[in-house]
Amino acid sequence: MKTVTGLFDNYDDASNAVGELDATGIPHSDISIVANNADNWHDNDESRASDDAADGAGLGAVVGGAGGLLTGLGLMAIPGVGPVVAAGWLAATAVGAVGGAVVGGAAGGIVGALTDSGVPENDAHVYAEGVRRGGTLVTAKVDDQLVDEVERILGQTKSVNLEERRGQYRADGWTRFDADAENYASNEIGRDGARDVNRL
Fold first, then answer.
1. Which of 88, 90, 100, 162 is the most exposed place for a label (fewest CB within 10 A)?
2. pTM for this structure?
C-alpha cells in the first residue's frame, strides 16, 4: 500500500476530496483527515468524543452524504499544531506518538505518523506546517492500482501545490516544522488560504 496525501487551505475542499475518495471505494479505515481548529470553527456538540478519533473510529460510517461532508470528527491537540479536529488512522497514529508510542521518523506527532506511513520527511514537515497554519490534511492508504486515481483526487485544482508552498515558507525563513513551537493564535490562522493554490 502507498500513502497519498493532499493539503487544502479550505476545509470544504478537503471534505469534497474525502467524498471522492469514498466514492472511489477507498475503505473508511484507510482515509484520514486532520484540520486546524484554532479558531473553533468545529462545534464540539455535534462531534463524537476525541477518544473516537484517537482510536481511529472517527471515520467509520461518517463519510458521504450531501457534499461528501464528514461528521463525527474528534477534537484533540497535537503539539506544535495546536487544536485540531481529526478522524482516521493518521490522527490515531499521531496521538499514539504523542502518547509515547514509537513512531518512525525523527519526530513524533504528525510528522512521525506521516513518515512512518511512507511520506518523505521533508514533505511531512510541510504538511504539518500547513495544518499548523490553518490547513486541512487528507491522507489515504491505497493499493497500487488506485494510486493514480487517488493522486488525481488529492492533487486536484483546489489543493495546495506542495513545492510552491515549501518555497513560500522558506522565503519567510521557515526551515522545518517545530513541534515545540507555540501554537498560532486564532487571528493568525488561515493566512495560507490567501496564497495561490494549484490551479492546473
1. 100
2. 0.76
Alpha helices by DSSP H, the chain: 11-24, 50-54, 89-98, 109-116, 121-132, 147-154, 162-171
Give me the phi and psi of 85, to 5 degrees please. Answer: -110, 135
Q: Which residues of the chain have pLDDT under 70?
A: 41-77, 79, 91-108, 185-200
3-state secondary structure of 197: coil
What the block records as the C-alpha cell of 15 is 471534505
- Count the residues in the chain: 200
User: For residue 33, which of 45, 19, 51 has the smallest C-alpha distance?
Assistant: 19
pLDDT score, position 5? 94
In degrees rounded to 5, what are phi and psi of residue 141?
-95, 120
Q: Are residues 177 and 128 in contact, defined by beta-carbon separation less than 8 angstroms?
A: yes
Q: Are 3 and 141 in contact (CB under 8 A)?
A: yes
Amino acid at 18: V
> Which cell is 164 given?
510552491
